[in-house]
Write a structure and sequence with these properties.
The chain contains ten helices and twelve strands. The protein has helices at about 5, 25-35, 65-80, 120-130, 150-160, 175-190, 205-220, 225-235, 240-255, 270, and strands spanning about 10, 55-60, 85-95, 100-105, 110, 115-120, 135, 165-170, 190-195, 200-205, 260-265, 280-285.
Amino acid sequence: MTAERDDPRTVRPAVVAGMFYPGAPDALREAIAQAFRSPFGPGVLPVTQAGPRQLAGIVVPHAGYQYSGPCAACAYAAVARDGRPAAVVLLGVNHHGIGAPLAVSPAMHWQTPLGEMPVATALRERLLQRVAGVKADNRAHQQEHSLEVQVPFLQYLFGEVPILPISLGMPPLNAVLELGQALAALAEETDLLLIASTDFSHYIPRREAQRLDQLALERIAAIDPEGLFETVRTHGITMCGVLPVAAALAAAQARQIRQADLLQYYTSGDITGDHRQVVGYGAAAFFTPRNV
């Protein structure tokens, strides 16, 4: 075990505050509130419930809050209604390609303008013991925004809740499915919420993005991780987080979850009015069967 992982002072600092979301606490809280109030979002501020918990996972975007924040808020409204989980697993894409292909954060806390969020260190150790391909690697997380932008939403809802950030670069699909199956097993032992971070089509005309993204969303709704991967590959869909979503779907599949609910879909063109080159944003949720 490295000294870095043993050091309780290790904090992963916010690296996209002031870019993807406001860098000042009050402005950040207001940006999140605006995402919830938006006509592209739930339309109202969330009210956090006490449970009982049934939400197993969500799919959320990770662009700047002014673009994808309302879509993400649709998923986080479902999280609020479902209640506080014991821990949250964050599955995101490694856009920079630096570090281990399957990398958990070795930090003890993640920092945002709203404070420090604790990392679920015991959960991290259990995952490292279960899946040989998963490594503790800070490099994969140092500059990555896909997970960081989720943390303020969780802080807004719950204050503190332990998180396990996992960055996926370009591991083989079988390793991604193994990760999902391991997370399903851990979810049977600990009350976990999985959050898979992705944007959909990138920089193509709005109508084409809608057509292609619908194909991917159909595979997400069917809880079909292999089908999602094959659909994205076959049709050349520029969905950056296909592997994080596939891992979450594999976990859901292992837990006998058969369907995901689509909560929202729109494109950046719906926000900006420019439909020539858009990015697609989608949110989905999947729930454990009542008898599980």
